[in-house]
């Protein structure tokens, strides 16, 4: 009998590589008891989040920053140092040496995410789409990373200095990749399981296959949101699990390892569903806080009378790009730099903006109250 999740196969050079069994598992999942309760809780939390995003005057106000926030957290799991502020400074053209060089990785993640979501309207979730997303994610990486291509060598997971023989986990060898990915692609289009169960299994299976030289974790996390959007569980791409995974990193890896070693799908899915519910509730609270902040400032700016027009337009722009220069604001509002400077001065006096640099030629302002909603739990 083939093991429920897969088996470790001894390779000619003496190491054991994991070869996953096709999904869904056999024996079938037992969606009952605690797991059924967690699924119901996660479904409810996700529905509330999607509904909250839908009532925002402009869902883009929420999504634009939320996507950047996710990109920073997802990239941090892979070891990058760039922060959300670093990302925003990079977008305003700041080339300060203090900005980590790996901010490019975060920018690539944002572009890969946007590309994948847009591409879903023309191409179903597939290995082809994963490769296209990977190509954008790894843009600018060294040639040996093989951006957009499947790996041709054996990779492994383990602490620095580990080898194939003492690695924590060794994915399938290159000779088995196409077969494993073909099985995964077939499962991507299987609608027999609840969407969240489906997404949790796809993520775990992708991580087990580890088809790329680098970037597997980031692509695997993106797959969750893409699948839920494709299955129309989400009308807005608002669920991102990187914060939960980073906070529970040891439990996350232990859960995946238990699937590989003993087929403990139910335990892994229980962890995954807890993550969905917690993340959805956190994001829902953030969306509500964003809406309240926006309405509070709109009401205050409307009291400015004739000057309120440009101030309100600036406010909407700041919910998309909460760090600006005089030049970037002038371009966004399509006004002169003189007018943009007056808007900045007024918003700063009102306490909405805070200047974050004193260099006259390169002055920057930030919407600190808004940024704070992404730097702490609301």
Key features?
378 residues; mainly alpha; Fic-like fold; two-stranded antiparallel ribbon; 15 helices; 5 strands; 59% helix
Give the SSE order as H and E letters.
EEHHHHHHHHHHHHEHHEEH
Helix content: 55-70%
CATH class of the largest domain: Mainly Alpha
How does the overall form come out from the CA principal axes?
A: globular
CATH superfamily of the largest domain: Fido-like domain
CATH topology of the largest domain: Fic-like fold
Task: Classify the secondary structure makeup into a structural class.
Answer: mainly alpha
Overall mean pLDDT: 90
Low-confidence stretches: none
Rg (CA only)? 23 Å
User: How far apart, in Å, are the first and last alpha carbons?
Assistant: 49 Å
CATH architecture heading of the largest domain: Orthogonal Bundle
How can the largest sheet be summarized? Answer: 3 strands, antiparallel
Strand order of the largest sheet: 3-5-4
Number of structural domains: 2
Strand fraction equals under 5%
So how many helices?
A: 15
Would you report the number of β strands? Answer: 5
A few lines on this structure:
The protein has 378 residues and is mainly α.
Q: Explain this structure to me?
A:
The chain has about 375 residues and is mainly alpha-helical. The chain folds into two domains: about 5-285, Fido-like domain (Fic-like fold), CATH 1.10.3290; about 305-375, Arc Repressor Mutant, subunit A. The strands form two sheets. A three-stranded antiparallel beta sheet has the order 3-5-4. Strands 1-2 form a two-stranded antiparallel sheet. It has helices at about 35-55, 60-75, 85-90, 105-120, 125-135, 175-190, 195-210, 215-230, 240-245, 250-260, 265-300, 310-320, 325-335, 335-350, 370-375, and strands at about 5-10, 15-20, 325, 355, 365. About 40% of the residues are buried. The protein has 15 helices and five strands. It starts with 5 loop residues before the first strand and ends with a helix.
């Amino acid at each position: 009998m083939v093991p429920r999740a897969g088996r470790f196969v001894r390779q000619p050079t003496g190491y054991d590589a994991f070869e996953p069994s096709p999904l869904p598992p056999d024996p079938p999942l037992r969606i009952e008891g605690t797991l059924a309760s967690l699924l119901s809780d996660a479904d409810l939390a996700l529905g509330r989040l999607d509904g909250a995003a839908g009532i925002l005057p402009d869902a883009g106000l929420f999504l634009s920053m939320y996507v950047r926030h996710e990109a920073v957290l997802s990239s941090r799991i892979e070891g990058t140092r760039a922060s959300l502020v670093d990302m925003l400074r990079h977008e305003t053209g700041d080339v300060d040496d203090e900005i980590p060089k790996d901010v490019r990785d975060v920018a690539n993640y944002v572009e890969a995410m946007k590309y994948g979501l847009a591409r879903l309207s023309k191409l179903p979730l597939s290995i082809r789409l994963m490769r296209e997303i990977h190509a954008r994610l790894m843009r600018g990486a060294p040639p040996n990373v093989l951006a957009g291509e499947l790996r041709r060598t054996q990779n492994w997971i383990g602490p620095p200095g580990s080898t194939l023989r003492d690695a924590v986990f060794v994915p399938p060898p290159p000779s088995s990749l196409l077969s494993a990915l073909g099985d995964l692609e077939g499962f991507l289009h299987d609608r027999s399981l609840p969407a969240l169960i489906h997404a949790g299994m796809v993520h775990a299976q992708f991580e087990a296959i580890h088809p790329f030289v680098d970037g597997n974790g980031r692509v695997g996390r993106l797959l969750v949101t893409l699948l839920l959007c494709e299955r129309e569980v989400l009308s807005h791409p608002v669920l991102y699990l990187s914060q939960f995974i980073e906070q529970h990193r040891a439990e996350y890896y232990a859960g995946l390892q238990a699937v590989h070693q003993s087929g403990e799908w139910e335990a892994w899915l229980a962890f995954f569903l807890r993550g969905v519910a917690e993340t959805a509730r956190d994001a829902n609270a953030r969306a509500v806080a964003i809406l309240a902040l926006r309405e509070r400032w709109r009401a205050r700016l409307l009291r400015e009378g004739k000057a309120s027009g440009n101030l309100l337009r600036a406010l909407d722009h700041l919910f998309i790009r909460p760090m600006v220069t005089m030049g970037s604001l002038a371009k966004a509002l399509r006004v002169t730099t003189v007018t943009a400077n007056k808007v900045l001065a007024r918003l700063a006096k009102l306490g909405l903006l805070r200047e974050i640099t004193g260099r006259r030629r390169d002055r920057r302002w930030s919407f600190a109250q808004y940024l704070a909603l992404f730097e702490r739990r609301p």
